[in-house]
What we know:
Pfam families: PadR. The protein has helices at 15-30, 35-45, 54-66, 87-109, 111-118, 123-138, 144-162, and strands at 33-34, 70-75, 80-85.
Amino acid sequence: MRSxxxxxxxxxxxxxxxxxxxxxxxxxxxxxxxxxxxxxxxxDKTKGAWVPSKGTLYPMLKKMEDEGLITISExxxxxxxxxxxxxxxxxxxxxxxxxxxxxxxKMYIFRNLLFEIFGDESESVRANLMEIRFLAxxxxxxxxxxxxxxxxxxxxxxxxxxxxxSGKC
Length: 169
């Protein structure tokens, strides 16, 4: 599914806006929310490091409504706006996720070419990380717990290495 015009567009200064729009769709798929709830959720997810301003969020929500991706309804004594996901919004989100999965597959197939072009002395670490990521996504659900445990242990060991301590992954 192709994204609506303007959605997820741009590579530089607008990239953050596309990510916010994508997160809004993802978040509203779970349940309808107010703008305040969305801002708080983003703040929590970024551990307060970054939160869009109301002047960024609310016009974006209006644009997404105009594009048919979300609905806006008023509820409560203060007529608080509640945003919900439309079927078009759900379809758009699913299309973006599917497209990302396809891109990930292409990246894996062409990984050696990419490392040849962009590689450096840490090439083998990057190659191994890409391999781990690709394999982890293919592990059956009943083995995901073990996979998470292995990755978590490896991450802890790498953090010790970063702190100039020895570790074994």
